[in-house]
Amino acid sequence: MSRGFGKGVNPMKWPQSKRLFACAFLVLAMLFCDVHAACALPNSKVMAIPAFARKYGLPCSACHTAWPELNNFGQVFRDNGYQLMNDRDSPIWQNPSYFPITFRITPNWHRESTDHQQVQTQNVAGTFTGTVTQAGFDLSGMDLWSGGTLYKNISFILLPSSDATATWHFESAFVRFDNLKGSPWFNVKFGKFELDNLISEKRFLFLSANGGLYQVYHFTPPGVAATGAGDLNDFGIGDNQIGIELMGHSKNSYTRYSIAVVSSNEGGVGLTNSSTAGGTPSNRTYDVNLAFSQAFNAKGFSAGGLGLQRVGAFAYVGQRPTYFQTDTSGNPLVGLGNKSFYRVGVAGDFSIGSLELLPLFMHGHDNAYLGSGLASNSGPLPSTTRAPSFNGGFIEAHYYFNPQNVALFRFEKINMGQQADTTNPGDFGNVTAYSFGYRWYPIMLSRAGLAIDAEYSRTKSIGIVPESGDGTGNPPLFPTDGVWSSSIFLGFDFDF
Amino acid sequence: MIPNKLAVRFALGSMALLTLGATVVTAQATHVNSVNPNLGAPSVESEQSHIDGVTGHAYNGKKLYRRFCIGCHGPDGNGEGENAQWIDPKPRDFTEATFKCRSTPTGTLPTDEDLYNAITRGFVTTNMPQWRPLSPQQRADLVAFVKTWSPRWAKEKSGTPLTIPSETPITIDSILRGRAMFQKLECWKCHGPEGHGDGPSAATLTDDKSNPIRPYNFSTGTRFMCGETNQDLYRIFMTGLDGSPMPSFADVVKPDEAWDLVHFLRTMQPLKTQEASLWQSYVSAHGKDIKPIGPDSAAGAQ
Which CATH code, of 3.40.190.10, 3.90.79.10, 2.60.40.3090, 1.10.760.10, is assigned to B48-155? Predict the structure, then answer.
């Protein structure tokens, strides 16, 4: 092979068998290194989230189906305020040198490709519709989180998080008062936190640009195709919000509820809608999120498997401003003209032997002013304007060969119900996506973890920018264009 | 758009080989021993447990053991998991089939339900958590698998569970008789005259693996290791905690006397119980006449 390269042979012109052999050689070389690394380790590894694993000495597989996704034992631990409800919970039990910090980052190689993009080439005249393809070695962002108990039944999380350029923000920061009045049904959380989503996007197993998010968790209607006006709503149910939550659960967390009142600013800080500097000022209103779920044992299904079946429902009702009070220079100060939106849905988590299925359905609705990008004090709505709505969801499947090996698949679909404008194409904004991958956890110590993650994901979005932001970040030339965006991802996801 | 074929093949090939490699390596490097080193132990393929109409299967329990238990109890079931060195008390060694919390006489094997209850309840004063979040089927599967670590489970049957008679009335006389039993049986030597776990022998106690072990401190008011009710307390000292210095008193204590002792032990806990209330009233009225518990005490005369 090296002789071929020396002669300037183009690998793209090799016969298929030779190309496959070359690929296999590279991958085997990677694996060879990994195998030796894994075999050099002490025996009997099952892993844990390090901050808590160090505290309790439990394997991470005790709390996670595959980290970071929680199983029911982990859910109970979390619901109890990161306590096992024995006398090891109190900080007094910890060695004084113990400090509950974990970091996580993923060095990776990835390839992103998006078509139907308007591009130019330097020194070449004209604008063309083409494909933008990028590839190379890269870093993910980094989480540096701390969590535990301040006192028995008073817990906390602090999660500074950075992007790959080390621009930091607070992804989570809250204190939680657990088991009020001695009852697990009353727990109060105050700060910035993840909504109580039955299927957590913060704890899922995909990492690639297109697969590393649930499309429907961040989808907003596409706006008006003719004018290019976008929806004013920035809400994503997958994003952490800032506010207060009352949450309760049965002792085994089979039954769970959550009522959260959060600022209408998408988890932003400084009374803006952004976690970092430069955000738009927020309004003075609050949104409400309700979530309920019930788990049950289905005889026959749980044998040999992960156990419980869980179903749940959720509803989020919020509002966003449509215009601003400004200073004399026109700089926005406070959001005004609030208009409402809502998201409702059902979700499940089902285990059939070693197979876990995670289905979700969501219906979304935005006020017509929000959907068409119009200020509510700008006069009556044009006759073509409608309140946009959409239906979306996904089904995700995990197959656990054992706690250290999991195969992944997900299919997602979002269809617009009613467009924000009657002149929009009927499928404007529709999204189809699928992802599959494999995660192998060669290191599953109770003090550190390493997962090797391989993924392929692909999305098709009609007339809009892919949710991943890949490509130029601009919509395609025509609202009927289907933009395909794909990600290939190979990474080392490590956690200490 | 059709992505670059070579890149796609690279990705697909990577995943396929990653799957293959991972499966082979993890099967070799991180496993629960499939060949039990304890010859004569029940087979993982066939061992079962039976708890309230739920049948547990060891082959399912093996997967659960690997996921939940291996970190402490170890891949060989001998209590030498990777975390064991930092844990006090040490994790149970299943290869010896010696269990503290039983409903059966000392020296005998526990029932399936005893093991199931232990998994469910956890041990509050140890690192063993409550595994209540696992389904009943999963807990039953784990019980079945735990029984494959020792040949005792193939050779012996579980002991006959202790019959606990109805509780006698809680009276001050019963408490005083129990106090006399506490003195007579020399419980104070380990648990201390006030039940603080600081008796003269406390510092010298070790379990059957020579690890230091502390006697229960009644003044903490925490749950007992093997339950929290009066029946559980009765069962604890009548069956003993095998593997620990706590013996069985079944041969020397009659049922009525056992209930007396239960009633007295409850007075040592800082809990709002009927026993504590009666005892405090008695102490208020007769405090000067109560002889302290300890060596050469006449507490039995109270």
Answer: 1.10.760.10
